[in-house]
Amino acid sequence: MKPLAGRRILVGRAAKQASALSELLREQGATVIEIPFIEIKPPRSYRLLDEAVRKLPLYDWLILTSVNGVEVFFSRLQRLKSANLSGLRVAANGPATRAEIERHGLRVDVMPREYVAESVVRALRSKVKGKRVLLVRASVARDVIPRELRKAGARVDVAEAYRTELPRGSAAKIRKLLGGRKRRPDAITFTSSSTVKNFVKMAGRAVLDGISLASIGPVTSATLRECGLKADVEAREYNMQGLVDSLRKAFTRRARRTAR
Questions:
Q1: Do the domains 8-38+167-259 and 41-164 sit in the same CATH topology, yes or no?
Q2: Helices (H), the chain
């Protein structure tokens, strides 16, 4: 029997991105429920990003922190017919982001071992003094990278590539799911701070007793705590596979305790 057989797991990634996590969970036998907690939207204006793309030769470093950011960056690059990337060094936050960058033919120079902003800072702090850095990210994001790299002597420009919103219809679906006694999930996955905050807004006063909350890493777990919740499961490797592995181990331990 597969480790997650009989377990119902709620996946809250954006609809476009849910399939990768869902497939990994299904491979372990889980029944997956997909209700997006976030919806990816264009920024209110591409002005700052387009200005940065036009002056790419002035930058020494480009930092891309998500697949969404990579997709938008290269779409604007193509739209503006500005492809002068010579001399530009690139940092990626995570293997999925790196793979998407390389798919577009650009080499990644730095990828930290842990896929959080603090690790990006540690990897770049000694390399950016006196350098110009372009950070492409979501409209609402932690300011760790620009703040700390500026302290290290870098000149950092931040360009918004996308924003996240509450998805229409998800709140009603979540409340219905959590309100039913028989069909409630055994676990809910959280893959970013945005998924946590949006879930809390949409779930309202829904009771989560008996449901394991699974976090992709310490930053997401901290956001759960800020919202009055607790991560019952936290990935040791801060990616989708790490999240699934941690869920598998947690439910395997639980099944062994029950069998005693």
A1: yes
A2: 18-27, 47-54, 67-79, 95-103, 117-124, 144-151, 170-179, 193-203, 218-226, 240-259
Q: Which pairs from 249-252 meet CB under 8 Å and 24+ separation?
A: 250/212, 250/214, 251/3, 251/4, 251/7, 251/186, 251/187, 252/3
Query: Count of residues for the chain?
Result: 260
Distance of CA 79 to the CA centre of its chain: 26
Rounded to two decimals, the pTM is 0.85
Quick: pLDDT tens for 41-62. Answer: 999 999 999 999 999 999 999 9
Under the banding of pLDDT at 50, 70 and 90, the label for residue 80 is confident
> So what CATH class is 41-164?
alpha beta
Class of domain 8-38+167-259: alpha beta
Segment (H or E) for 153: none
Q: How many CA atoms lie within 13 A of 122 on its CB side?
A: 10
Domain definitions of the chain by residue range? 8-38+167-259, 41-164
